[in-house]
Amino acid sequence: EAQVTQNPRYLITVTGKKLTVTCSQNMNHEYMSWYRQDPGLGLRQIYYSMNVEVTDKGDVPEGYKVSRKEKRNFPLILESPSPNQTSLYFCASMAVGGLGEQYFGPGTRLTVT
Amino acid sequence: QKEVEQDPGPLSVPEGAIVSLNCTYSNSAFQYFMWYRQYSRKGPELLMYTYSSGNKEDGRFTAQVDKSSKYISLFIRDSQPSDSATYLCAMTRGSNYKLTFGKGTLLTVNP
How confident is the model at residue B6 (pLDDT cuts 50, 70, 90)? Predict the structure, then answer.
């Protein structure tokens, strides 16, 4: 089954404790992206990657890091989480040549206290 | 002015009603337009996309684009309780794959 998986699905952590949210896709997609979704603000792009070892900032990259060492994986790293990073996070992927047909993961709900 | 404006609702309709969801945008560089559906506690899923002005129909769903007015719509005919979800419009220039989303409209279809 074609899918994007994220782990963990739910995470409660404390300020300053480094964490990683994993994202993996099995569709051989070149493009991957991370979004955060907040009430009243909608979906905002954090980082995206056009291919292995190619990453770029989205609209709200501050406080986040990403890496793309393998085509299927695109982890999101919060080196020193803060309460304003409490949010619902989505990973998405898309084939090159796609014009918006992104496949989203199930989401990771992060709470930073 | 935000690039994409979408009324967040909520919108509540009886089963069988025709639903109209709308977005306006300010950037004429947007060329490709999409509607995503997001059920509660799920990720968004692509519902429809179009790249030209006019209508595109898929079953009970019709996507409409008016580039001259910078206005896009999604119509749902014979709405069902299973259509209850948040609907997000999205658009892209097509050159760098960045999608710009509306904030989403929460729709509830009551049996």
Answer: very high
Per the structure block, which two tokens stand in for A51? 């291919």
pLDDT digit string, tens, across residues A28-53:
999 999 999 999 898 999 999 999 99
A4 touches chain B (CB under 8 A): yes
Q: Which residues lie across from B14 on neighbouring strands? A: B110
Angle at A40 between CA A76 and CA B64, to 5 degrees: 95
Name which of A9, A3, A4 is nearest A88 in CA terms: A9
What's the CA gap between A63 and B64, in Å, rounded?
Answer: 38
Cα–Cα distance measured from residue B9 to residue A80, given in angstroms and rounded to the nearest whole number = 35
CB B61 within 8 A of CB B47: yes
What is the H or E stretch that residue A34 is in? strand A31-38
Tokens of A48: 């995206």
- The verdict on B99 touching A (C-beta cutoff 8 Å) is yes
Interface of B with A in 4-63 (CB under 8 A): 6, 8, 32-34, 41-46, 49, 51
What percent of chain B shows pLDDT beyond 70?
Answer: 96
